[in-house]
Amino acid sequence: MLHIALLGKPNVGKSSLFNRLAKERIAITSDFSGTTRDVRTQQIDIDGRPCLLTDTGGLDESSALFGAVKTMSLSAAKKADIILYLVDGKNYPDEEDRKLFYSLVKLGKPTALVVNKADNDKDKERAWEFGSFGAEVLIPMSVSHNRGTSNLKKWLLTFLPALEEAPQIEEDEDEWDDFTEEEPEELLPEEPQDPTINIGIIGRVNVGKSSLLNALVGEERAVVSDVAGTTIDPVDESIMYNETIFNFVDTAGLRQRGRIEGIEHYALKRTQSVLERTDIALLVLDASQPFTELDERIASLVEKYELGCIIVLNKWDIAHADFKNSTEAVRDRFKFLAYAPIITVSALSKKRVAKIHDLILQVHENYARRIPTSKLNELVEEASIRHHLPSDQGKLVKIYFATQFDTCPPRIALVMNRPKAMHFSYKRYLMNRLRESFELEGTPIILIPRKRGEKDESSGA
Ligand SMILES: Nc1nc2c(ncn2[C@@H]2O[C@H](COP(=O)(O)OP(=O)(O)OP(=O)(O)O)[C@@H](O)[C@H]2O)c(=O)[nH]1
Ligand SMILES: Nc1nc2c(ncn2[C@@H]2O[C@H](COP(=O)(O)OP(=O)(O)OP(=O)(O)O)[C@@H](O)[C@H]2O)c(=O)[nH]1
């Protein structure tokens, strides 16, 4: 059974995280033998997968010197398979912390830097400050506000083998052997821990949204309303596809079409309410008609909400168009959605509609992608050697390091000396380089130039 250790200085939230993870277990928790006063180890379950969790908290004020933390952390880390190093996101990164973290990384075990107390979006964004630790995986979270725990669990699940059924039955032995031989990574790739994708079907009147919904949902309509524990908004419709719930957001309006037809204001309002709850937008365009300004305004909302996107060129059966010319026309008109794949379909005849399902899975995987820190920094370094950052009134502009601090969509902080001098075109260049190197089709990438906190001069660089 894999063993996870929670490490970090006093008061960063280790016990709180321990309790949260332990509370969500499914199996009966028992105190693990060898429990000492300071180190608690329990068997827990993460989504039905058992593991051991050790909390190294409990250092009292007198022993709360950094040396004690270090000794305890190193000894717990040596026994563990996976290391979670917690820091307090309300504080600035601390050089001692960084050094300890570095010595833990050198143990060569999967190690995540968990930036706790990121209670709100502003705190979460500040988590990039800890990018100077050079962690391969940086996860901002707030135990007390229950934010980011699913990201943490998702990361942990990539290491925990799926052992939903214990091998009690003798006959299952062969199957069991096959099962355990697989790499954990293959069992659970980059899939979301909560396998629901919220999908918004948007577009102006009469482009074929309702027809597309029917074609996508088909016979399986509302299958998952029976699935225990899934709460579905009555205005939504869901299907199960490859063990993932596709939840089509706010389809009620599409079912009662014709009622408020033609009102531009309504179209935009509905689009906004849909997009607020959406991960992936299916932007439906009518390939048999010229694109309109309303198409453009609706499309621009996808950019505003920073969503994954697939452009569906519908009515292809009557478009009499050439694929190359049509896609060029889309690219020309919807420049800000250059990242979105284009698919031509006929919702009426259902031609190629089935391909949209796999495309949704792929785009969502990209939307949730976490780029390993070392690969990200290699790329940024190489890109800036190939094309130097333009100087700022003769002063050198430098990127110290890059750190991805969020997913859905990927958000990357570029920590630099003169963030204001980062030109839009250089950002675009970096984004293009990222898209060339990593699978990011269909997702926006958010690059945020930042300057390090004043109290942080000693670290990084
Ligand atoms: N704002 C905020 N406070 C938190 C969060 N998580 C924990 N805390 C608080 O931080 C304090 C320390 O939490 P603990 O879980 O006891 O921290 P610990 O790392 O186990 O501390 P030691 O047992 O001393 O090693 C408590 O007052 C928690 O309520 C969080 O996400 N946000
Ligand atoms: N030829 C053809 N007609 C289609 C296709 N998809 C939809 N239509 C037709 O286009 C018209 C509008 O389709 P709807 O699905 O109602 O469009 P909508 O976007 O939901 O429309 P509103 O609810 O009014 O916004 C209907 O007459 C459909 O039969 C298609 O792929 N090919």
Automatic annotation (TrEMBL):
UniProt cross-references to InterPro entries, sorted A to Z: G_ENGA (IPR031166), GTP-bd (IPR006073), GTPase_Der (IPR016484), KH_dom-like (IPR032859), KH_dom-like_a/b (IPR015946), P-loop_NTPase (IPR027417), Small_GTP-bd (IPR005225)
Domain EngA-type G: 197-368
Key words, A-Z: GTP-binding, Nucleotide-binding, Repeat, Ribosome biogenesis
Coiled-coil annotated residue ranges, if any: none
Pfam families: KH_dom-like, MMR_HSR1
Residues reported in the UniProt entry to bind GTP 1: 8-15, 55-59, 116-119
Keyword Secreted on entry: no
Residues that bind GTP 2: 203-210, 250-254, 314-317
Assigned protein family: Belongs to the TRAFAC class TrmE-Era-EngA-EngB-Septin-like GTPase superfamily. EngA (Der) GTPase family.
Subunit composition and interactions: Associates with the 50S ribosomal subunit.
Stated role: GTPase that plays an essential role in the late steps of ribosome biogenesis.
NCBIfam families named in the record: GTPase_EngA (TIGR03594), small_GTP (TIGR00231)
Protein known as: GTPase Der
Species for this entry: Sulfurospirillum tamanense
Upper taxonomic lineage: Bacteria, Pseudomonadati, Campylobacterota, Epsilonproteobacteria, Campylobacterales
